[in-house]
Structures are given as structure tokens and as C-alpha cells.
Specification:
Two copies of one chain form a homodimer. Chain A contains ten helices and eight strands. With 272 residues, chain A is an alpha/beta fold. Chain A folds into two domains: 97 residues, no CATH class; 149 residues, Rossmann fold. In chain A, the strands form two sheets. In chain A, strands 2-1-3-4 form a four-stranded parallel β-sheet, sandwiched between helices. A four-stranded parallel β-sheet of chain A has the order 6-5-7-8, with helices on both faces. In chain A, helix 5 runs antiparallel to helix 6. The first copy, chain A, is elongated and about 70 Å long. Chains A, B: Its EC number is 2.7.11.33, 2.7.4.28.
Chain lengths: 272, 272
């Protein structure tokens, strides 16, 4: 599939079109070229995209694949007239739902009159601020309002996972490192003790941890395989002893880690 | 549409199913209850979900809507046997693509053998670390390797946008505040001058800024409407003078802001 182009054409940001399109394209081994055309909401703009699609088809000798999220019937019709394979996510699924619900759709694509004023959106921004302020044990204040506290050795994946939970799910995710001093003392950091129930552990294969730490501080004791082994094993024992559930981040993406954590903590305010 | 439940059933994290499902549900005014069932990858787990769907149908007197991203034919068939309306995103779109490409699909849903080892994933994690280290002008080091530097007054939306760009698009997004001292001096912070070309501005309506700042520091001069007006107007003049493109975050979601910035900066390494 070389010389093949995929277009994402949307009357909004195109995030939905692209996210969905990518999950479908991930089914195929080849990597086509991506072209994003957001905010296509007038016939004029649509005709411009059609010219681009047709030029591409001529140049590549293969018709492009075009993922669309377009509400306006006229705009949609114009794009359909191009020399391409159109995959229309809304048209295919919204109509059966109208029949099922017995109501007409709003003819909107993931857009709200003013998303920035919705409670859900405000909660997400607040969660991001909370997670930033509570990154890497920076603050023990307000841990009582955290939805989850990720714990684990340095560089086990806590920070990106916390931010992802906040950004995608509006979860107030603090994270707190387990460090050699804690292992020597044989006890959880005292700030965590009252909140043990909402702690969730991340662990990681010592070999992978060594690689990650080595990039940060080459040839340090901190990055040595021996030290990584000791820290990981001490952290796993401690989490086991304290009854803290954990998972390994070694072969998992942030999305997979986050989904597993959500399934486990099932915060009351999410129906999960 | 009260007492109506929507299920998201996936053999992976379910992020794709949910993102797509939500963009479709946003077409309707009512808010059904959401239930997420990720990692459904065996017949046993599928039968459990079927029981849940049927129980819900009985209790609510209406068949649930079920968005699925399931590759395994057996698992898919089991879910289809439940009393519900199934909306199958992969089945509907992957098959025509197989015909178009003339190759069989990988039968995978946005998953890779080991995503954590792909270059794309490593770049994303690196971008998150970069964006965190360069949040709020914390560091002027390595600004030359930033893909974009967001500028604007305090609380104009720079931090969440930077993190989103890093997390979703692997963009190294620094952010740097424009503060009263800069306006008094009438010049950009000196660290930004060599990198003006990759600066992108965020602005915000003074009334909205006042609300946001008021939550942080109630009744401060910082949060007063008069001060917000002065800062916003000074920042907009400065960006105009320096030839820095900007947009207003007032009525936009992070996703919309990020998409607009990407369209504008078109980083070379993304085919955008």
C-alpha cells in the first residue's frame, strides 16, 4: 500500500474522524499517507477538498480513502462526488439510532454550543491541574480528594498515566514515588498510609527500567540493572504486603494501563 | 431517552468505541447511561456481558444500544445475540477496505504486538516529558528542539493544550507565560526571541479569564476584571506586533485548540 493517501474530512476538528479512521487503518500492515482537512463546513471548502482528492487519485493512480464526519447534506454530497472510497461514520450509524430513539438527531458532530462551559469539561481541566500539582509526590495536600494515587519506583510510568487519566477521564490522579528510603524503612511513605485504599501500583521489568533510566542518567548506580532489580523487587514486596493492587507497565500502552486502573478503581462518579 | 443504557464493548481498551460512540450520541439531546466493558476477548467474558445487557433490557423495558469494537468472530456473534441494537464500527468499515486494498486486515484493533517498543510510542512519552519540563516557562533550555511554544497570559489554557499536543500527537510543546513585566518592557521574553517562528498564542475573553483566576485567587488584583482586560489587550498587541498567530480559547475545547494549532504549524515530521 505505498502511494496511497487517506483523507480525514470533517466539519469540526476532525479528531473523531481521525481517531476512528486510525483504529480501522491499524487493521492493515501498510502505512498510507495521512491528510487532515478539518473545519470543512461550506460547499466552497468542500469543492477545494474534492480537487485535492482527485489530484491525488490522478497522481497516485489509486483512489484515496476518505473518512468523513460531515453533517451538512450538501457538503457531504460534494465530497462523495470525488474519485475516492468514502467511509461515512455518521451517516451509517446516526440514522438507525434516530429510528431506535424515535427522535431526530441534533445534526451536530461531537460539538456543543459551548463545550468550555460544560461541567464535564471544567472537571477535566480541574483534574489536569490536580494531577500536575500532585505529580511525583510534589504535594501531600488534598490527597483526600484524589480519585487514585499511583505508586511505584521512579520511571515506572506513573506521570504519563496520571496525566492521561486526568485528561481523558477527568480523574484526579496523584502519583507518589516509592524510593530506596521507603524500602530501607520497610514502610509506605507516611503521606500514603491514610489513603492506602485508593493507591494503585505500577511496576516494570528491571531490564526495561534500566534502559529508561540509562537514557536519563547514563552509567549511574540509579540506572544499573542490579539497582533496578533491587528497587523493583522491594516495591513489589511492599505493595503485596500493603494490599495494593498493581500491574506491569512493561508491555502496555498508557491507554491500556489507564483502562485497567479505571476498571479496578471504578470511581463512583463514573458508571464504569 | 431516560432509562436508556449504552454499552461500549471492546476487546481492547474501548477508547475507540467510546470516542466514536460519544460523537454519535452527541447528535441526540438526551443523555443515556454509559457502561464500559473493555478487554472482552473470550466467549466467557462475552456471555457475561450478554447477561448484563439482557438484564438491563428487562429492567428498563428498552433494548440497550451497544457499540462494539470486537475482532473475534465468535465473541462478536455472542454479543450480537443479546437483546440490543449493535453498532459495529469495525465490521462495517474494515471489510470494504480489505476489498479496496486487496489485502487481508490484521484483525487487530488499534493494538500492536508491543506498542511500548514502537518508535511512535517512545516519541510520545518523550514529548510528554519535554512538555512537563517546559511548562509555564520553567526552562528555556532546549527550546530549539520544541515543535511549538505556546504563549499567552497566565491561565489562558496553555498547560492543558501543551500536554494534549504531547500526549495525543507526540508534539514537543513548550509553554511560556506573557507577564506584566513583559508588557511594561514592551518586548517578548528574551528566551522566546530566537524562536518567534514557532510561537503560537492563546488568548481568552477577559470576563472568562476573571472567572478562572478568581477561583485560584479570589478577590485579588490578579483576578480583577480590570487587570484581566489590561493583560489580555497588552498580550494581543504584543503578539500582533511580533507576528505571532493566535486564537481564543474562550469557547473552544482543548481538542479544538490543538487541532487548529497543528493545522497552523504543520510540523514537518507529521504529514498534516
Amino acid at each position: 500500500m505505498p502511494n496511497r493517501t487517506v483523507f480525514f474530512v470533517s466539519d469540526g476538528t476532525g479528531i473523531t474522524a481521525e481517531t476512528f479512521g486510525n483504529s480501522i487503518l491499524a487493521q492493515f500492515s501498510a502505512k498510507p499517507r495521512h491528510v487532515r482537512r478539518p473545519f470543512i463546513d461550506t460547499p466552497d471548502k468542500a469543492y477545494q477538498v474534492v480537487r485535492e482528492i482527485n489530484d491525488t487519485a490522478g497522481r497516485e493512480g489509486k483512489r484515496p480513502i476518505v473518512f468523513i464526519t460531515l453533517i451538512d447534506t450538501e457538503v457531504r454530497g460534494i465530497i462523495r462526488s470525488a474519485h475516492c472510497l468514502v467511509l461515512d461514520m455518521l451517516g451509517t450509524f446516526v440514522e438507525p439510532l434516530e429510528a431506535e430513539f424515535g427522535i431526530k438527531s441534533n445534526h451536530r458532530v461531537g460539538r456543543f454550543d459551548d463545550i468550555s462551559k460544560s461541567q464535564e469539561y471544567t472537571d477535566r481541566i480541574e483534574a489536569i491541574n490536580f494531577s500536575l500539582a500532585h505529580d511525583d509526590g510534589q504535594s501531600s495536600k488534598n490527597l483526600d480528594i484524589a480519585d487514585v494515587i499511583l505508586v511505584g519506583v521512579s520511571r515506572s510510568g506513573k506521570t504519563p498515566t496520571s496525566l492521561y487519566l486526568a485528561m481523558q477521564h477527568g480523574i484526579k490522579a496523584a502519583n507518589y514515588p516509592l524510593i530506596p528510603e521507603d524500602f530501607d524503612r520497610g514502610a509506605l511513605p507516611s503521606a500514603l498510609v491514610p489513603h492506602k485504599k485508593k493507591c494503585f501500583g505500577l511496576t516494570i521489568a528491571p531490564e526495561r527500567l534500566r534502559e529508561i533510566r540509562h537514557e536519563r542518567r547514563p552509567n549511574s548506580k540509579y540506572a544499573s540493572l542490579e539497582n533496578c532489580r533491587l528497587e523493583v523487587s522491594a516495591a513489589e514486596s511492599m505493595m503485596g504486603r500493603e494490599g495494593i493492587a498493581w500491574l506491569s507497565s512493561t508491555h502496555k500502552s498508557i491507554e491500556e494501563i489507564a483502562t485497567t486502573i479505571l476498571r479496578d478503581i471504578r470511581p463512583d462518579r463514573l458508571i464504569y
